[in-house]
Amino acid sequence: MQNQEDKIICECGNKTVSQAIEIFQNTDLPYKKAKKLVTECNQTCCRRPLMALFNMIEFGSIDYEQIDFLIEQKRGR
């Protein structure tokens, strides 16, 4: 089984959860602009897991199981 931090959160930017965390932690941009740093596109395909992760970082606690669930749910569409 793949480590939750190593899962690809966005196929467009080919970024993992840990890379997205690092990007979100190192920027003071609002979500919409910070998302583009991760996705490298304007698509909404990864909106739910990315928005959840962004909010978790804002509040200081990351629930990897929920992020994993949202990634898997997105893939199941």
Task: Give an account of the 3D structure.
This protein has 77 residues and is mostly helical. The chain has one domain. The chain is built from four helices and two strands, in the order ββαααα. It has helices at residues 17-25, 31-39, 47-59, 64-75; strands spanning 8-10, 15-16. The chain has a two-stranded antiparallel sheet. Strand 1 (8-10) and strand 2 (15-16) form a beta hairpin. Helix 1 (17-25) crosses helix 2 (31-39), helix 1 (17-25) crosses helix 3 and helix 3 packs antiparallel against helix 4 (64-75). It is globular and about 30 Å long. The mean pLDDT is 90.
Q: Tell me about the largest β-sheet.
A: 2 strands, antiparallel
Number of domains: 1
| Neighbour order of strands in the largest sheet | 1-2
Query: What is the residue-mean pLDDT, rounded to a whole number?
Result: 90
Number of strands: 2
> In terms of structural class, how would the helical and strand content be classed?
mainly alpha
Distance between the termini: 21 Å
Summed up, the helix count is: 4
Q: Strand content of the residues, in percent?
A: 5-15%
SSE order, as H and E?
Answer: EEHHHH
